[in-house]
Amino acid sequence: MEFAALVLDIEGTVCPISFVKETLFPYFVAKVPSIVQSSETQSDTIKDLLSQFNITDKDALSAHILGLVAADKKDPILKQLQGYVWAEGYSSGEIKAPVYPDAIDMIKRHPNVYIYSSGSVNAQKLLFGHVAGSDGSSIDINPEIKGYFDINTSGAKIDASSYSSILKDIGMADHPEQVLFLSDNPRELDAAKQVGIVTGLAIRPGNAPVPNESDYVTYTDYAKL
Ligand SMILES: [Mg+2]
């Protein structure tokens, strides 16, 4: 095994960058009107979240929520509502995470896999708990993952200090050269490299082109990891 531990980004690295924009967000937008209209029959959590917007007229409430989404507002109530609606979508099987098959294999094969994503740890666990299997079922690969990090646990992904903190947490502070961080974002890779972590640039369909790609070790698949 070339690396003692793997630290993986999610979007653009182990699943298509379009998943959030083209699946999760439209799923939420499509659900909002019916959730608001039938708010009386929703779970207490949803009722409580909706009431926190302080808008009694249902059409106005729907429009307000959709407006926040359209404007990409980082509203904490909206974020909680989205997380809850997505959780229900995952558990009902309506949403499955399109993790690349070779990424699933790598995660299963390597004994020490960690995730570092700007999406919350909760959202990460939901995603890996409902991965689209090759037969159309949804599979839980969380048991294959040793730990999860996000911007709350570890700091921003473009800060070198975040990677020092992760190295410490995974017991690799003295051996950063045995840790591989995979991401589609060169700025994240540069930050990890500053603390001695080995980096790999994920080149997957739909990722933004990286102008100085030749400065990085690139991976178009993970068969060798
Ligand atoms: Mg990414």
Automatic annotation (TrEMBL):
Residues engaged in binding substrate: S117, S118, K157
Task: Identify the enzyme class.
Answer: hydrolase
Named cofactor requirement(s): Mg(2+)
Catalytic activities: 5-methylsulfanyl-2,3-dioxopentyl phosphate + H2O = 1,2-dihydroxy-5-(methylsulfanyl)pent-1-en-3-one + phosphate
**Example of a GO cellular component annotation carried by this entry:** nucleus
Q: From the UniProt record, give one GO term of the biological process aspect.
A: L-methionine salvage from methylthioadenosine
Subcellular localization(s) per the UniProt record = Cytoplasm; Nucleus
Q: Which residues bind Mg(2+)?
A: D9, E11, D184
Which GO molecular function entries does the Swiss-Prot or TrEMBL record give?
A: acireductone synthase activity; magnesium ion binding
EC number(s) given by UniProt = 3.1.3.77
Read off the InterPro entries from this record.
Enolase-ppase_E1, ENOPH1_eukaryotes, HAD-like_sf, HAD_sf
Which keywords fit this entry according to its UniProt record? Amino-acid biosynthesis, Cytoplasm, Hydrolase, Magnesium, Metal-binding, Methionine biosynthesis, Nucleus
Q: Does the keyword Repeat apply?
A: no
Taxonomy, superkingdom? Eukaryota
Return the NCBIfam families for the record.
Answer: enolase-ppase (TIGR01691)
Protein name per UniProt: Enolase-phosphatase E1
Highest classification ranks of the organism: Eukaryota, Fungi, Dikarya, Ascomycota, Saccharomycotina
